[in-house]
DNA sequence: ATAAATCCTGACCGATCGGTCAGCTTTGTA
DNA sequence: TACAAAGCTGACCGATCGGTCAGGATTTAT
């Protein structure tokens, strides 16, 4: 029986949850090859055999986590239109990516590791989804530029700029913390960094804000 | 005898060169744990034992490469002064980081992997060097803001923005190539991306350019 | 020519890798 | 209560890991 809509957590659900969290942590830190099932099992507080009993194989576990990350990612900024306000959309874009960095940093680092490896597990179909995502948004940015609502910057480079600048606070958190004497990045840090990025990027693209400010 | 100033390459120099290049490639792709000496040896076309004969241990090899990267990095933008032109300095900063991404992408990815791991090999002294580098430049940016030469943006966030946006073209090259249908990033891509970043960031910080343009 | 230093490598070491499996315990159902 | 299904795990497999070492091959110095 699958009580898939009952709130009670079965043994399987409970353990898979613990395994996923532990695995995300270890994969994010050491990459696919560098992560060991033993280390994941230890982090989850579960015997190695039990981990394999639930997830089948290292490969399957990794791909599951990767797809989960992609899914979360693609859900972002799903309803953008040419008629929206450019400043509002760019701000929403930056803020939501920044929130992902804050709430799911290990997810972000797992993805970064996959790319550094040369994206061997990212099927063409998944890259295809991202391509469509990018092209759709880029098209909107282009329209805005044509209407004079922002400078005619390359919209694809703009998307990469926002990705990189926001992901940096998840992927390179260790470096930021080490350089700025912090113990960790807190709510205020993400807020102020988000403010900074919104200000610089929106102004840098020559977006005219509704309130008349430049 | 050490012919350390003779141009002839000794067997040691030749082999170390090949090993370093191969190792940088493998470490950049798979991280410290994920890289195997066997794989490095194969990439260098040298028996595993011979690799260990030259470099001593995996740890030592990795640290050597990491220090080499840090050295290259710290040499950047070494002579910045409050009296320099903000736009010129920012442009030089972005261009030189962009050139590093173009000419030493594996170096950049090696470093990215080290940070993702939590920087276990980056001694406090090395982080200290980076901290001094950042604080010195941040101080200059602050002065410029006080003199009204640019907006009063957080100078540390600005440095991280430039780091992340430029490194992205090395660390996430696979993703960029996959999404934009390219085979690889070429000279023109780096040029146009560099142009874009200079334009957006300098304008975004409210830097007044000498020629009067905004 | 010959001794010394360096270069080079196959064989091997214990540890750990991902994964399998027999067989145990616990849970759910009739 | 009884039986099936699911949960669980120690022992084990061949492969690979980082590293050592004896000893042969080659180069260098005298």
Write the layout of secondary structure elements.
The structure is a homodimer.
Chain A lengths: L10 H24 L2 H8 L3 H8 L2 H17 L11 H18 L1 H12 L7 H23 L8 H17 L1 H7 L7 H18 L10
Chain A binds a DNA duplex (30 and 30 nucleotides) through helix 1 and helix 3.
Q: What does this entry look like structurally?
A:
Two copies of one chain form a homodimer. By secondary structure, chain A is mostly helical. Chain A folds into two domains: 11-56, Homeodomain-like (Arc Repressor Mutant, subunit A), CATH 1.10.10.60; 67-204, Orthogonal Bundle (Tetracycline Repressor, domain 2). Chain A is 71% helix and 0% strand. Chain A has ten helices and no strands. The first copy, chain A, has helices spanning 11-34, 37-44, 48-55, 58-74, 86-103, 105-116, 124-146, 155-171, 173-179, 187-204. In chain A, helix 5 runs parallel beside helix 8. The longest helix of chain A is centred in the first third of the chain and has 24 residues, at 11-34. The first copy, chain A, is elongated. Chain A starts with 10 loop residues before the first helix and ends in a 10-residue tail after the last helix. Chain A binds a DNA duplex (30 and 30 nucleotides) through residues 1, 11-12, 15, 36-38, 46-50, 52-54, 57-59.
- The oligomeric state of the chains shown is homodimer
CATH class of the largest domain in chain A: Mainly Alpha
CATH topology of the largest domain in chain A: Tetracycline Repressor, domain 2
Largest sheet of chain A: none
Which range does the strand content of chain A fall in? under 5%
Distance between the termini of chain A: 60 Å
- Described by the principal axes of the CA atoms, the overall outline of chain A is elongated
Tally of helical segments of chain A: 10
Secondary-structure content class of chain A: mainly alpha
Q: Helical proportion of chain A?
A: over 70%
């Amino acid at each position: 029986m699958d009580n898939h809509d009952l709130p009670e957590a079965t043994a399987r659900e409970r353990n898979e949850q613990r395994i996923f969290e532990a695995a995300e942590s270890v994969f994010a830190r050491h990459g696919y090859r560098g992560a060991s099932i033993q280390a994941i099992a230890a982090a989850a507080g579960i015997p190695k055999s039990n981990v394999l009993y639930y997830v089948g194989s290292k490969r399957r576990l990794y791909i599951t986590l990767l797809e989960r990350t992609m899914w979360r990612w693609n859900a972002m900024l799903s309803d953008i239109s040419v008629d929206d306000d450019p400043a509002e959309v760019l701000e929403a874009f930056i803020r939501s990516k920044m929130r992902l960095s804050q709430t799911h940093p290990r997810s972000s680092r797992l993805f970064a590791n996959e790319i550094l490896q040369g994206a061997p597990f990212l099927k063409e179909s998944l890259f295809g989804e991202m391509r469509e995502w990018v092209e759709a948004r880029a098209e909107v940015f282009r329209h805005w530029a044509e209407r004079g609502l922002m400078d005619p910057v390359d919209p694809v480079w703009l998307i990469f700029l926002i990705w990189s600048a926001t992901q940096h606070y998840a992927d390179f958190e260790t470096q930021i913390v080490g350089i700025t004497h912090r113990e960790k990045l807190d709510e205020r840090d993400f807020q102020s960094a988000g403010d900074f990025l919104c200000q610089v990027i929106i102004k840098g693209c020559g977006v005219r804000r509704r309130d008349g400010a430049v």
